[in-house]
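Quick one, tokens below:
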């Protein structure tokens, strides 16, 4: 009792029981108040990948544990409907929202450019978002140049039209 151990998240999740209190989970430093204050100053300066490649994923998993700071970690200070006490410090949601526009803008405005420096600082979720934006831009460029395949209606749309027409015959 009273010992501190580092265990994998899956094991902590398995041992965590709010009724029996087998373990208590301590927040990693990047989710504590000091770091949330840094994020609230300017989240774009922080290298999320260096802090943990799955910053948002781990943070959302930590919300499953009983911690009085969970509302501050999860929610934005701008929620008027929330009855939970929320500080003005940056949260997972605020951090993602502040990064979202920059990521989407960058993915749309870096056609045929080296993006390795930009992508190196992103969390895995942000990298996926960036790649999706780049793919959309590349697909659009191909379509604009006439290099895309012919656009056809989906089989679901075609079947829906047939069903609707069959229903009116009845």
């Amino acid at each position: 009792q009273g010992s501190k151990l580092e265990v994998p998240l899956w094991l902590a999740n398995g041992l965590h029981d709010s009724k029996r209190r087998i373990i208590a989970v301590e927040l990693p430093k990047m989710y504590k108040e000091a770091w949330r204050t840094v994020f609230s100053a300017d989240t774009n300066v922080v290298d999320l990948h260096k802090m943990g490649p799955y910053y948002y994923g781990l943070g959302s998993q930590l919300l499953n544990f009983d911690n009085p700071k969970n509302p501050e970690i999860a929610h934005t200070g701008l929620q008027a409907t929330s009855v939970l006490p929320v500080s003005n410090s940056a949260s997972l949601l605020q951090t993602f929202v502040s990064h979202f526009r920059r990521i989407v803008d960058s993915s749309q405005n870096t056609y045929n450019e080296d993006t390795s420096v930009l992508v190196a600082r992103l969390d895995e979720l942000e990298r996926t978002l960036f790649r999706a934006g780049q793919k959309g831009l590349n697909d659009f460029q191909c379509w604009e140049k006439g290099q895309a395949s012919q656009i056809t209606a989906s089989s679901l749309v075609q079947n829906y039209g047939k069903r609707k027409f069959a229903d009116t015959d009845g």
